[in-house]
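Supplementary Text 2. Reproducibility record for the structural model of the 295-residue chain.

All settings were left at their defaults, and a single model was retained for analysis rather than an ensemble. We include the record here because the model underlies the residue-level annotations in Supplementary Table 4.
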Amino acid sequence: MRDVKYLLHRILLLLSTLFWGGTFVVVKQAVAAADPILFIGTRFLLAAIMLGLIFPRKLRRNLREALRPGFILGLLLTAGFITQTLGLQLTTATASGFITGLSIILVTVFEILMTRKSPGAPALAGVICGTVGLLLLSFRGGRLTFAAGDLLTLACAFAFAFHIALTGRFAPKCEPITLSTVQFAVVAVICLTYSLLSGHQSLEPLLNVWPAVVFTGIFASGLAFLFQTIAQRHVNTIQTAIILAAEPLFAALFARILLNEQAGWVLIVGGLLIVCGMILSALPQDFLRPHIHNS
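Retained model, structure tokens:
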């Protein structure tokens, strides 16, 4: 029975990663037809409603303590998804997936800066790998060029990194499902209010991409975050990071199959360096040190 639970929790985490990897292709196609901000708002409204319907008692019981941290995290989530979605209009789904993955490496950098502790060898190697990978992704036509879409996605990575770092501080004090629902509601309110006030409230283009709204709202937001919350109660940080590192690889795979995006060797090598950096950044400081066993 223990082995079944062991496997189930990792499958749930892998499913979350699969859903998130698939969103890059789905969102890129959807925002080509619908307003990006309206799409984001509708997606997260659907996610918030879904969790609210599934866990009404839990939300009522824990709402007050989750309001302030949920609002702060919701602002960061809004910034992350807006910059990521706008960036997807100007760069490939493959590059967007890899650059977004830098958020895990940036969390390590933030921790180093906040705690002022010297990084361990794995963390330092991870930061170097991620930086070199980003530079390779930006190497076009024989020169280093940061496209607008890449810069927007890099801003997304910073927003998600801040979100991950603050979630680590808030989550132990709040019920996770309630915290997630408040965040989703904040994103929905901000994006839908902006769309209404700016005149982008036409629903017809959005109705044309309703499968993308359903997939990203129910699967990539509601269920994926729920699966992650359940799994991370039983899966340690290192194993979680290794599984999450598959997200940009899934993004690249779906982009190749569904959008026929061509990935040259520079993009492949740069992406793999970022994935290696994601994994290395999550390893403990003494991971590479030789362990002496006393007999």
